[in-house]
């Protein structure tokens, strides 16, 4: 069963990664009851053989299952199913997603406004170069590392060391969340556009536009996270209104 060439459905299908295909396969198997709560998943070697994927790909998928609250890894024993459906509030590192989003809304939105008023030419140059590297980057791990650097650089531009310290504190959780969203939500290109809007607002010195751009960015993060954890059902997709106001 080779999952590496899977695609998602919808009006604009996108090619998904092998990891996302493996995760979808295992998640659906758990939700169908093929693996019941308390069951142990097959060994990594067995799953790699069945799904025809590499061990690194499988391990990324297993980590995502744990983040979603479906499984738990027990050292020396394997991976066990602990829930038949994903939790609504996944955990990234030491922090729940809802806690991260709440803090980010209260910190990063005003920080963007301060940064627009206080940024230096050096700050803008650093952010612009970082954004250019992100827009060229195709490796998720490298992109995620630069994503956290981007948000740290915005905090640095606000000229208040406390703001940067807060972002430093949640840096690992932000990286885990970013990797999760990019692997499963295809967020990279959209994030790049949102980051560019933030940089443009800082360059213009517009507090209002910077606040709006960061607000939009965080709202999209939340929307994507929700869509991954609680994907639309077939009924949702067939009854959802189109842009013209009619049902699809």
Note down, in words, how this protein is organized.
The protein is built from eleven helices and four strands; from the N terminus they run αααββββαααααααα. By secondary structure, it is mostly helical. The relative contact order is 0.10. It starts with 17 loop residues before the first helix and ends in a 9-residue tail after the last helix. Helix 6 packs antiparallel against helix 7. The strands form two sheets. A two-stranded antiparallel ribbon has the order 1-2. It has a two-stranded antiparallel ribbon with strand order 3-4. The longest helix is centred in the last third of the chain and has 23 residues, at 207-229. Strand 1 (71-74) and strand 2 form a beta hairpin. It has helices at residues 18-32, 44-51, 55-67, 97-118, 121-136, 140-157, 161-169, 171-185, 188-204, 207-229, 234-239, and strands spanning 71-74, 78-81, 91-92, 95-96. This is FadR family transcriptional regulator. GO terms for molecular function: DNA binding; DNA-binding transcription factor activity. InterPro entries: GntR_C, TF_FadR/GntR_C, Tscrpt_reg_HTH_GntR, WH-like_DNA-bd_sf, WH_DNA-bd_sf. Pfam families: FCD, GntR. Keywords: DNA-binding, Transcription, Transcription regulation.
